[in-house]
Amino acid sequence: MRHYLFFVFLALCFAACTGRRSASEPALPADQKPFTIYLQPYEDFPQREAEALRASITQALGRVYRGDWSHVEVLPSRPLPAHAYYKPRQRYLASALLRDLSVAGPDAFVIGLTHKDISFNIHNTKNYGIMGLTTRGHFKTIVSDYRAKGDNFLAVIVHEFGHGYYKAPHCTDPTCIMCDYQAHKGKPFVYGLCPAHQYMH
Question: Can you give the pTM of this predicted structure?
């Protein structure tokens, strides 16, 4: 009888342990989509140019931030909203374009692309020309290559991604990707992080 009770006790212990393990290690849904970056070209930014940016953006983000940025998709082109155009300076209001972009979530980030000059009320100037705009903690950004080309344009994307994905503020360190654009003024952007922003790597 005692041997029988001993085996029953072992069986109950095994069942309890198995139950705890399965509860602490839930299986991920088979169809769970990986984190995806969506490129949203506006009508002036050819679809083929957006497609050509996919690999470059993955590489540029990987130079600074830790993570898997390999899932990049291009959305169909969309028209520039007429209400965003500021005729006196022939610029598009970046804040209006940012609102026009689709809302993204924790598993996706939207990057709006345009060749047009964009502006924002900053540095005590109304409709100051900028290269990108992001609301910290919001998973979308609008960027323009009107003022930054090639590798510098990719650096702008990496910078704005830091604002949106990591909620990172600006800094004054010229060796950091999150340095305020004002500090660069003709200098190339640096793909690096200062001590205050090391948490992003």
Answer: 0.82
